């Protein structure tokens, strides 16, 4: 969907930020073994749990919970549009030796079940990270045809991230029961950071008069649900592709009418068109993170903080 569309963002997006956590746990020098809660379980004593994940947000959550006891590899290469990704056999070879496979679900990785079957790895713990969350239905007929009935972007939501981290925690415990306390503690820490960020921004957004913003890729429906906001996306209104002159004129009108001051641009959206649009309506262009790929080497929480802060600022 929409990678290439222009993004115009109206006014608000929110992303609270908490502090970091997670990720970066590649304890290089390694194996000074995990001290305390020593595990003798998982495969080889203090070996890390091998986890194969589909895309960047899943890596972030897995590392937040598993820290130095997981070794994560990401199937969808950074910079690849994840929605239309179709894995080749070589992309999935890691699944035959992985202990845990983490995917987000809600149709994001329609190939996940097949991949698990093809891996033929009876020790593999498959984790559908969104399990238990309430999906948002897609309403656009073309979108449903192309990507299924649900909006997949559950991870761009602090509430969704909680569910995903908890499901990942449970999967890691299955693979390495001796580290259960460690994974639980890390997950609790991560969740409390998510919640504190949520509280901070919930207060701010409740008080905001303006509750809507414009973005290129309609990736923020769950974030909007968290905070009672509304996203208007260029891709919904104008479908995919570079806009024609006529469509661009329509966008310009839309922005002027709605007093759009900020146009949010995602990683895989055409910045040139967005800039053109922004110039024409006197708006500024701001980056927003979808956490579908590595972006600026920032953690999940750093990116959500940035998103929430930018969205909030755009509302006023
Ligand atoms: Zn997306």
Question: Mind explaining what this structure looks like?
Answer:
- This protein is an alpha/beta fold.
- It has two domains: 151 residues, 3-Layer(aba) Sandwich (Rossmann fold), CATH 3.40.50.1980; 107 residues, 3-Layer(aba) Sandwich (Rossmann fold).
- Helix content is 39%, strand content 12%.
- The strands form four sheets. Strands 2-1-3-4 form a four-stranded parallel beta sheet, with helices on one face.
- Strand 1, helix 1 and strand 2 form a beta-alpha-beta unit.
- Helix 1 crosses helix 4, helix 4 runs antiparallel to helix 5 and helix 8 crosses helix 9.
- The longest helix is centred in the middle third of the chain and has 28 residues.
- It is globular, with a radius of gyration of 20 Å.
- The relative contact order is 0.23.
- Zinc ion binds next to loops.
Beta-sheet strand percentage? 5-15%
The total of beta strands comes to 10
Class per helix and strand makeup: alpha/beta
Radius of gyration: 20 Å
CATH architecture of the largest domain: 3-Layer(aba) Sandwich
Instruction: Give the overall pLDDT as a whole number.
Output: 83
| Cofactors, ions and other ligands in the entry | zinc ion
What order do the strands of the largest sheet run in, or round the barrel if closed? 2-1-3-4
CATH topology annotation of the largest domain: Rossmann fold
């Amino acid at each position: 969907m929409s990678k290439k569309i222009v993004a115009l963002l109206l006014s608000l997006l929110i992303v609270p930020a908490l502090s970091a956590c997670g990720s970066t746990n590649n304890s290089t020098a390694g194996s000074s073994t995990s001290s305390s809660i020593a595990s003798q379980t998982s495969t080889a004593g203090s070996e890390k749990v091998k986890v194969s994940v589909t895309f960047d947000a899943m890596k972030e959550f897995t590392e937040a919970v598993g820290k130095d006891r997981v070794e994560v590899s990401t199937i969808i290469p950074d910079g690849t549009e994840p929605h239309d990704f179709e894995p080749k056999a070589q992309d999935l070879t890691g699944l035959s030796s992985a202990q845990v496979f983490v995917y987000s679900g809600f149709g994001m990785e329609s190939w996940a079940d097949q991949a698990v079957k093809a891996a033929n790895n009876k020790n593999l713990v498959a984790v559908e990270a969104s399990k238990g969350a309430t999906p948002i239905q897609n309403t656009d007929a073309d979108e449903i045809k192309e990507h299924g009935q649900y909006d997949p972007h559950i991870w761009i939501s602090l509430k969704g991230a909680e569910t995903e981290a908890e499901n990942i925690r449970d999967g890691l415990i299955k693979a390495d029961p001796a580290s259960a306390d460690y994974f639980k503690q890390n997950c609790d820490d991560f969740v409390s950071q998510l919640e504190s960020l949520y509280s901070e921004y919930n207060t701010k957004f409740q008080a905001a008069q303006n509750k809507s913003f414009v973005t290129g890729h309609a990736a923020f429906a769950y974030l909007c649900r968290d905070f009672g906001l509304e996203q208007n996306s260029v891709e919904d209104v104008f479908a995919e592709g570079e806009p024609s002159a006529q469509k661009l004129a329509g966008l310009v009108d839309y922005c002027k009418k709605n007093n759009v001051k900020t146009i949010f641009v995602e990683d895989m959206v055409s910045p040139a068109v967005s800039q053109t649009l922004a110039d024409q309506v006197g708006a500024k262009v701001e980056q927003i993170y979808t956490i579908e790929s590595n972006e600026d080497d920032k953690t999940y929480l750093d990116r959500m903080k940035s998103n929430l802060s930018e969205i909030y600022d755009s509302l006023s």
